Amino acid sequence: MGSSGDGSLASNDGTGKGEVFHKGVAISMWQNSGDDDSNWTNFIKSNFPFKALPFGFKRFSGKHSVLQTCPDTWNRYEEDVELAAKAGCNAFRLSIEWARIEPRKGEIDMDAVARYHAILDSMEAAGIEPNATLHHFTHPQWFEDLGGFEKAENIQHFVAWSLKAIELFGSRITFWATFNEPTCAMFLGWITGMHPPGKILACITAGKVVMHKLQAHCEAYEAIKRTAIGKSLQVGLVHHHITFLATGPRLLRGLAAYAADWMNYWWGYELIHQWMLTGKFTWKVPLLGQWLEWQHPGGKPPCDWFGVNYYSRSVVTWYMKPWCLPGEVMTDMYYPIYADGLYEALMQSNQYGIPIYITETGIADKSDKNRATMIDKYMRAMLRAIADGADVRGFYYWTLVDNFEWNAGYLMEFGLYAWQPDGSVDRKLKEGAKALVRFFKALPSNLSALRAAAARLVKEGELPDHEQMHAEAEEVLHDLTARGHKGRRRHGHAMVAAT
Ligand code: BGC
């Protein structure tokens, strides 16, 4: 198993695949191209936040949805694979949509299977390595109707889906992720109600959902490894690494810190971090205390590689308003550019002892003024982590073409290539995206050569010094606290109160 070391692609595995540093883009097919039979499609049709909002709140997802128009990589895959290759990619992360392949229970759509094969043909022709995710927030409506991941008895359906996907595409795809961001989907779907099933503060069910997904990861992993082809596949898990920093006026900072602690635990990295290290899952709920516990019988969970999705750290006020610290630049999402956090996420994930891929990073930046800065800073933070010993083997930018950002609709523009739902812009390379193209073209694809390049860049003073980045952040925090506000530290991230 990967966690014990024998699943990772060592340099001498005979395939040479472990020697390649992945320079990639990431997409989820649903966000990019929709599809009729998914729970998310149904959610848009029926639910918050796309229809009337309670208490007179306005929609914040814009006027178009993926149901009416989309960038449509599903049909324009040849162009899009070529655009990725032009940007210097040698890898492409995509979701294999369960709802497209099995729209009704037990019924396989052979046209959809053929389309995925055609997409893989294009990638192969362009020398691009696919990296497939089996569950990127979406699943068939029939699975949702059975109760989805709220019910332990439904885990078997996910395992069967994983085996079907391997049977259909396993000979062509080496890198597989079971789930994309289990904690993020849980938080948005069961705590805030912004993702399906749209439940609010369903704290106990939320815990069951994450636990069942982690159990499903383990069961799917074991089942895949038992297949004839299983041993040659790399099966991983993708996690959203985020930390929350509490701020607020003196009297309310306790409240802010309390909320941030819960966010760090639920949505942030803590829950998964503990599980990855020990196989122990513990679900705690405010006021009720510990509610669920599960220990993977094999100790550390089976996992050949770990996917880190990193965008930023979230700085919140006592009433959870997102903002940033002095000197930081806000993105269009609820967080600033924060490269130091990527370094920390990678060093922390390195403790699992398996290869790490940055499976997503990027910026929502309509103005495109900050994209190049973000790419430059995050790329250097990653190179620094590699030079400091982190086994990072890939950098996937989110995303290729502007697409549908879940509850925020088309308002968030993450793409390397611009696309507008009104048809005014179609796949135009953004100025800021050129920074990524330059990095991808300049950096070696060979892993050992990349590691050597990272070490050389450190010597040449081209990469940030983590200690220095940290000291600068401390200075900002000190300035804030010196104005009469106490700070408090947690897991290396300062929690500070400011006016
Ligand atoms: C998700 C993507 C999403 C991106 C940008 C990640 O949490 O995996 O689906 O679009 O972040 O917010």
Automatic annotation (TrEMBL):
SUPFAM superfamilies in UniProt: (Trans)glycosidases
Record-level Gene Ontology MF annotations: beta-glucosidase activity
InterPro entries the record matches: GH, Glyco_hydro_1
Keyword terms of this UniProt record: Glycosidase, Hydrolase
Stretches assigned to coiled coil: none
Family to which this protein belongs: Belongs to the glycosyl hydrolase 1 family.
Ligase recorded as keyword: no
UniProt keyword Hydrolase, yes or no: yes
An annotated GO BP: carbohydrate metabolic process
Protein name, per record: Glycoside hydrolase family 1 protein
Highest taxon listed in the record's lineage: Eukaryota
